């Protein structure tokens, strides 16, 4: 785990501040393995926690199976919601490696896609679950 100093510009652009109200899921990150909306967490509360953003899911140049599946299934349009969906999907598969469609829908219920790519997202998660 890399320690980031306060005030550092780490150029992570995946988690987007979209609604700033904890309603859309676009800023979803994992904190100590659990998903949270970054817009609802104070920076002081993140101190000494392990934070995983969409950028942290890949292993160097090797994409996480969820990231690969999102590309394979074209599960993105405008892209604003994509990082939040990918992080939420990875967390879901960490907890339930073979979710049903209903479990996928429930696990992602806090994420909103205004473009309506839900069927592609659900297909991507099913594909990723077979790879993990």
UniProtKB/TrEMBL annotation:
<keyword id="KW-0479">Metal-binding</keyword>
<dbReference type="InterPro" id="IPR036010">
    <property type="entry name" value="2Fe-2S_ferredoxin-like_sf"/>
</dbReference>
<dbReference type="GO" id="GO:0016491">
    <property type="term" value="F:oxidoreductase activity"/>
</dbReference>
<protein>
    <submittedName>
        <fullName>Aldehyde oxidoreductase iron-sulfur-binding subunit PaoA</fullName>
    </submittedName>
</protein>
<dbReference type="Pfam" id="PF01799">
    <property type="entry name" value="Fer2_2"/>
</dbReference>
<dbReference type="GO" id="GO:0046872">
    <property type="term" value="F:metal ion binding"/>
</dbReference>
<dbReference type="GO" id="GO:0051537">
    <property type="term" value="F:2 iron, 2 sulfur cluster binding"/>
</dbReference>
<keyword id="KW-0560">Oxidoreductase</keyword>
<dbReference type="InterPro" id="IPR012675">
    <property type="entry name" value="Beta-grasp_dom_sf"/>
</dbReference>
<dbReference type="InterPro" id="IPR001041">
    <property type="entry name" value="2Fe-2S_ferredoxin-type"/>
</dbReference>
<keyword id="KW-0408">Iron</keyword>
<keyword id="KW-0411">Iron-sulfur</keyword>
<dbReference type="InterPro" id="IPR002888">
    <property type="entry name" value="2Fe-2S-bd"/>
</dbReference>
<dbReference type="InterPro" id="IPR006058">
    <property type="entry name" value="2Fe2S_fd_BS"/>
</dbReference>
<keyword id="KW-0001">2Fe-2S</keyword>
<dbReference type="InterPro" id="IPR036884">
    <property type="entry name" value="2Fe-2S-bd_dom_sf"/>
</dbReference>
<dbReference type="InterPro" id="IPR051452">
    <property type="entry name" value="Diverse_Oxidoreductases"/>
</dbReference>
<feature type="domain" description="2Fe-2S ferredoxin-type">
    <location>
        <begin position="1"/>
        <end position="57"/>
    </location>
</feature>
């Amino acid at each position: 785990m890399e320690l980031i100093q306060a005030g550092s510009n780490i150029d992570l652009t995946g988690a987007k501040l979209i609604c700033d109200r904890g309603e859309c899921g676009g800023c979803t990150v994992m904190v100590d393995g659990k998903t949270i909306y970054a817009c609802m967490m104070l920076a002081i509360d993140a101190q000494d926690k392990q934070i995983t953003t969409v950028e942290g899911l890949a292993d160097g140049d090797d994409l996480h199976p969820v990231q690969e599946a999102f590309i394979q299934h074209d599960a993105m349009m405008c892209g604003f919601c994509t990082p939040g969906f990918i992080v939420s999907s990875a967390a879901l598969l960490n907890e339930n490696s073979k979710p049903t469609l209903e479990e996928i829908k429930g696990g992602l219920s806090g994420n909103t896609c205004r473009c309506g790519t839900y069927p592609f997202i659900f297909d991507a998660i099913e594909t990723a679950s077979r790879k993990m």
